[in-house]
Amino acid sequence: MSNENFSREIDEELRSDQMRNLWKNFGPWLIAAAVVLVLGVAGWEGWQWWTNSNSARSSDQFYNALSLSEGADVAAAQQALDDLEATGTGAYPTLARFREAALLVKDGKTAEATAAYDAIATTETNTNIRALALVLAAYTLVDGGNVAQVEQRVSGLVAPENPMRNAAREALGLTKYQTDDYVGAQADFEAVLADPAVSREAQSRLQIYVAQLKSLGAGAPAVEATPAAEAPAADAAPAMEAAPAMEAAPAMEAAPAMEAAPAMEAAPAMEAAPAMEAAPAMEAAPAVETPAEPAATDATTPAAPAADAPAN
Predict the structure, then answer these.
(1) 10, 47, 100, 173: which could join 188 in a potential S-S bond, CB 3.0 to 4.6 Å?
(2) Alpha helices (runs of H) in the chain, residue ranges in sequence order
(3) pLDDT of 224-274, one tens digit each?
(4) All residues at 6 or more sequence positions from 71 whose CB lies less than 8 Å from its CB, including other chains
(5) Segment 76-97, tens digit of pLDDT
(6) What SS3 string covers 196-234?
(7) What is the pLDDT of residue 182?
(8) Measured between alpha carbons, how far is 176 from 154 in angstroms, rounded to an integer?
(9) Low-confidence ranges of the chain (pLDDT < 70)
(10) Is residue 299 within 8 Å of residue 288, measured between CB atoms?
């Protein structure tokens, strides 16, 4: 055997010993890791199956309760919702609580419904769900017109960054409308309309509300401006009354006194007399024309003698 072959065999033996030692030291750990991986995958798949199964069961319970609530058997619907709250999984118990509160509103039990929504807001940790419960509780108080209780629930939701701000403002506006606070209600509705994130449906609804409020006289500033506008008109009225002073113009009717001019018809009779002598009498006629309007009444009296003179 050559030295080269002998060296190769020794190297192979060393490699085999190294691999056996490596497997002996780390082999069990590799096997355990593989087993853990397989068990983990199996456990995850089992958890998913169990969760989906429970969710499907809770979903069936929830839709069954909804079907009962749409019918006449409200008591059975409430019982189904109670069972879902106790045994349901995921978000279905919370949905059941909201639905049960809505059934109370539908049944006319406003106080119980408000208490149910308040309970949801108290126990929920999700801020969005809590805000929704508070807004719905506020809406149950709108017809009662208790502005203080509504503000107690939604005053913290009207911040510009809160996603429930417009619903909270609308609830406040409706409550103020119930108390005949039209100006305050209009301010809340217009705040919602000024929000660029308001939905089209809410915008159309609130525009109707604002138009109704304006028809009821909610535009107080515009009403106060009207007396100022009427004042000049009132002042102008006396000035217009002065216009009847122009009726003094009928004093010009004294002009018929000029009918004495028919005395000129006597001029033919004067034709028999020297025409030059009648001329001075004609020169007196301008005296009738020259008097101003105030003297028009005076001109009428001397006109009669002027008419008599030719008659002599």
Answers:
(1) 173
(2) 3-70, 74-87, 92-106, 110-123, 127-140, 147-154, 165-178, 182-193, 200-215, 220-241, 266-270, 275-283, 285-289, 296-311
(3) 434 443 433 334 333 334 333 334 333 333 333 333 333 333 333 333 333
(4) 77
(5) 888 999 999 888 888 899 999 9
(6) CCCCHHHHHHHHHHHHHHHHCCCCHHHHHHHHHHHHHHH
(7) 92
(8) 14
(9) 1-3, 6, 219-312
(10) yes
Q: Show the 3-state SS of 110-122.
A: HHHHHHHHHHHHH
| Nearest by Cα to 187 from 163, 209, 162 | 209
Contact 311, 266 (CB under 8 A): yes
Q: Report which DSSP code applies to 272.
A: T
> For residue 34, what are its two tokens?
């593989």
CB atoms within 10 A of CB 55: 15
Q: Which two tokens stand for residue 237?
A: 């009225």
